[in-house]
Amino acid sequence: MRDGTETIIGFARTVRAAGGPADTERVQAMLGALDHLDVLDPADVYWAGRFTLCADPDDIARYDRCFAAYFGGRTARSGRRVPPPAVRRYTLVPSPRTPAGEERATDVRLATASGVEVLRNRDVAKLSAAERAEVNRLIALLAAAAEQRRSRRFEPASGGRLDPGRTIREVLRRGGEISALRHRAHRTRPRRVVLLIDVSGSMSPYADALLRFAHAAARAGGRGVEVFSAGTRLTRLTRELRHRDPDTAMTAASAAIPDWSGGTRLGEELKEFLDRFGQRGLARGAVVVIASDGWERGDAGLLGAQMARLHRLAHRVVWANPHKARPGYEPLTAGMAAALPYIDDFTSGHSLGALEDLARLIGDRNARRAR
Fold it and tell me: Is 1 exposed, middle or buried (0-12, 13-18, 19+ CB in 10 A)?
């Protein structure tokens, strides 16, 4: 079923890339629907997706094209109609122990938004094994796209700054006659994203979900995303987390991390990162995300000095601390107190909903400093 789930997730990404409303809830609804249908029957897959990934009639033609291209390797023919589905209705049979007068028939829904909403706000450290598997599947759907930044290069534009070179060439082609002025504008390109995930013992309830989030970001951002684990050693995980399958990527990352559930020396690891990779351009102008609870066992002064150094290089520094979601939390540990002055965005990252917020922060060029 895992291969089938990956196929459906890939199809949903195709619909979303084409402009369809294939958000996390709709994809979850499609996967829930297919739990009651035959995933090997193209008609069942088609209707499960059409009922869940289309928001209005205008989405149907786009959906048909994506379905034909993704599953059939061709473009859908215009005017093609799929036969109407046979609507099946299910009811729950009351238990023999149900008292008389309390029997009731209940429609079995293919997917419930309320169930997804409950999972979205649950702390990942408190999930059951089944709930964790469901949340992991939803994390794989997150699109943590980086914000766009202005490039030094130009491209043709319909208005804006005058393009002297193209204008003069156009005049010369027309024998000296000025027919139209040409314009240009700066190109845009994704800003680099760097994620440093704390895998120490105090972060062990959250490290798996945060690494899965990093995998989703690496898959969405391609070569513009770099991932490192930090504990007592700094480990680069970018290559391992670029694997398409989340479980395979996590297995490779786990094998590469030598200090899983160990101590925390964030100051030393951040210094190593800046010494080895900061001057090579990985941190310069990037959105740097640090996921840690801030329990620094090393020198908090060193952490503060390296955070100041990072803040000067990076475009924005985002810190995700799972404990921030707890009522009455105050960043009073030595590590958090030293780092806080150099953090642009302070969030939690303790649940699926918090990871969705973190994904939006990564792509929000207008993010404000929040402490």
Answer: exposed
Alpha-carbon distance of 354 to 332, in angstroms, equals 21
Cα separation, 318 vs 342, whole angstroms: 9
- Which 3 state secondary structure label does DSSP give 194? strand
Q: What are the structure tokens assigned to 366, written together?
A: 């207008």
| Phi and psi angles of residue 53, each rounded to the nearest 5 degrees, phi first | -95, 0
Cβ-contact 187, 161 below 8 angstroms: no
Among 283, 293, 220, 236, CA closest to 263: 293
Give the residue from 189, 187, 250 showing the smallest Cα distance to 218: 250
Instruction: Quickly list DSSP for 96-119.
Output: TTSPTT-----B--S--HHHHHHH
Spatial contact of 231 and 198, defined as CB atoms under 8 Å apart: yes
For the whole prediction, is pTM greater than 0.85? no
What DSSP assignment string belongs to 230-293?
Answer: ESSSEEE-TTGGGSSSHHHHHHHHHHH-TTTT----HHHHHHHHIIIIITTTSSTT-EEEEE--
Rounded to whole angstroms, the Cα distance separating 7 from 294 reads 38
Structure tokens at 290: 């640090």
β-strands 316-320, 345-347 pairing: parallel
Q: Is 317 helix (H, G, I), strand (E, B) or coil?
A: strand
Tens-of-pLDDT digits for all 371 residues of the chain? 556 787 888 888 888 888 888 888 888 888 888 888 878 888 889 999 998 998 887 788 889 888 888 887 444 443 344 444 443 443 334 444 544 444 443 343 334 445 666 788 899 999 999 899 989 988 988 876 667 666 667 778 777 788 788 878 877 887 777 777 887 776 767 789 999 999 999 999 999 999 999 999 988 877 889 999 998 999 999 999 989 899 999 999 999 999 888 888 999 999 999 999 987 789 998 999 999 999 888 889 999 999 999 999 999 999 999 999 999 999 888 999 999 999 999 999 999 999 999 998 888 755 544 43
